[in-house]
Amino acid sequence: MVNKDNIDQFVKDFTAKHGEFAVVSLSIDSYENLALNIADLRRYINQQNDIIVYYEDSMKQPTEEKKTDGNAQ
Amino acid sequence: MTRVYIFLLVVGLLGGVGFGAWKYYTDTQQRIQTLAENNAKLETALETSEASINALQEQAVQTAKLTSELQGKLQAAEQYGDNLRKRLRQLDLNADALANPKQLEGRMNAATAKLWREIMGETGNSAGSKSPDPEWLQPLAETGAGDQNSNPGSTDNSTDSSQTKTN
């Protein structure tokens, strides 16, 4: 996290560690957008997982019932 | 002579009645047998139909239950994003960045590590909350503060995005 107060120290430390000063930076607004986009990806992944589980349950239950009936007879 | 004719007539009548009775009896027996067979077939068909109806009703109930559960899960999946939007509205990250950048950086790294572990757990990683931090996440020594929810002592370089391989 770099602001106007610590940027000089950051440039100095960064250059000492990496040699050249070249960074990819994010503004606070962009960081918030990135966080929201990742949250959206997470929502999408979880919803797709839930849908897959739903279809798996829908497909396997009739078969299981038949197997149960067969064992009972 | 007349008696002979009368006798023959009586015998003929009795024979006709007897044959008719026998014919009626056999025909009725055959009809009863056919009806009994048809009844058995109908009972079997009825049982099959009832079993099919019961199976369809059970399937409909199960599908309704699963659909309801799915709706709940789909809504629950939106909870993290909703909470994050609410939290970002409450916070003023610009002010925090100006006031205490090290502390904010630590909080961001802790939240990132927590999110990373949660996503790993949700996508099938059995380690879940015990999984080590990814190596691209800055350790506590560099951030300086606030990384209370992460495991600063351990790292995982299995998905290290900072080590890009080039051919």
Describe the structure.
The complex is a heterodimer of chains A (73) and B (167). Chain A has a domain at 26-72. Chain A is rod-shaped. Chain A contains two helices and no strands. In chain A, 78% of the residues lie in helices and 0% in strands. Chain A has 73 residues and is mainly alpha-helical. Chain B contains five helices and two strands, in the order ααααβαβ. Chain B has a two-stranded parallel sheet with strand order 1-2. In chain B, α5 (140-143) links the parallel β1 (133-134) and β2. The A-B interface holds A 1-6, 28, 31-32, 35-36, 38-40, 42-43, 45-47, 49-51, 54, 57-58, 61-62, 65 and B 55, 58-59, 62-63, 66-67, 69-70, 73-74, 77-78, 80-81, 84-85, 88, 93-94, 97-98, 101-102, 104-105, 108, 115, 118-119, 122-123.
List the helices and strands and how they pair.
The complex is a heterodimer of chains A (73) and B (167).
Chain A: H1 7-18, H2 28-72
Chain B: H1 2-77, H2 79-90, H3 93-99, H4 101-122, E1 133-134, H5 140-143, E2 155-156
Parallel strand pairs in B: 1-2
Helix pairs in contact in B: 3-4
